Amino acid sequence: MDDNKVFKALADPSRRKLLDALCERNGQTLGQLCETLDMQRQSVTQHLGLLEDANLISTARRGREKLHFINPVPLYEVYERWIRKFEESRLSLLHDLKHELERSKP
């Protein structure tokens, strides 16, 4: 995974909207994605290219249509590498605090 490509792709609000649209309904065509967003077809195509380059989406042909699918693997890898390790210590502290408060109840 190329972290820089993933973070660059996620940095743009329009690309995040595209990912949200695919999360809501996976397997959309370019035309369907353009309908839900206030962007020109050319802009959507460029954003999809960056998302595909970052491996955040994949495509498949169905006849003449090109369908776009979200790929959650890079997002999970970002979570594992950059978020999870910080989350564990915080959750552990909250767990310990909860037990301490429960023990101190009259």
TrEMBL record:
Pfam families: HTH_20 (PF12840). NCBIfam families: HTH_metalloreg (NF033788). PANTHER family: TRANSCRIPTIONAL REGULATORY PROTEIN. This is Helix-turn-helix domain-containing protein. It comes from the Bacteria. InterPro entries: ArsR-like_HTH, HTH_ArsR_DNA-bd_dom, WH-like_DNA-bd_sf, WH_DNA-bd_sf. Residues 1-90 form the HTH arsR-type domain. Signal peptide: none annotated.
